[in-house]
Every structure is written in C-alpha cells, then in structure tokens.
C-alpha cells in the first residue's frame, strides 16, 4: 500500500514582464502555454527551497566530526526509509 503525503498549493503571481520573459525562455522547447510556465515556476521554487535547506543543514552540521556526520547521514536515511 502506498502512502500519499498531503500537499499544499500556493498561488504565485508573476509580473507580466517576468511571465513573458519565462514564456520566451521556454519558447526554445516549444512549450509556451500556461502549464509550461507553471511547471517552470514550480521547478524553480523547488530548486530554491532545496538550496535553502541545504545551506541550513550545512550550517547546522558544520561543527560535526566526519564520524558524527556519517552517523547523522545514516540516521537521516533510515528516518526517510521509515516514512515511505
């Protein structure tokens, strides 16, 4: 049985010029409809959030020794596996 995680949807308003810039950027892939822009913005936000979390994890674990860091990573992997 697969677990389904709840998700939250947000509405993001883009300035007209930014929206048009994104559409022009996507024109190379011949995907210039609203759905393509939505996918692009979602991927950009996901990437931004991943980088921010990565920075926070690096800052929070900077004081750990190599062995402590390895233990932290292993515990994190085990936690993630239990969440499936």
In short:
With 84 residues, the chain is an all-alpha fold.
Distance between the termini: 10 Å
Q: In terms of structural class, how would the helical and strand content be classed?
A: mainly alpha
Tally of helical segments: 3
Beta strand %:
under 5%
Question: What's the count of strands?
Answer: 0
Describe how the helices and strands are arranged:
Elements: H1 16-27, H2 34-61, H3 66-83
Structural notes for this entry:
This protein is mainly alpha-helical and 84 residues long. It has one domain (16-83). The chain contains 3 helices and no strands. The protein has helices at 16-27, 34-61, 66-83. The N and C termini lie close together (10 Å).
Keywords:
mainly alpha; elongated; 84 residues
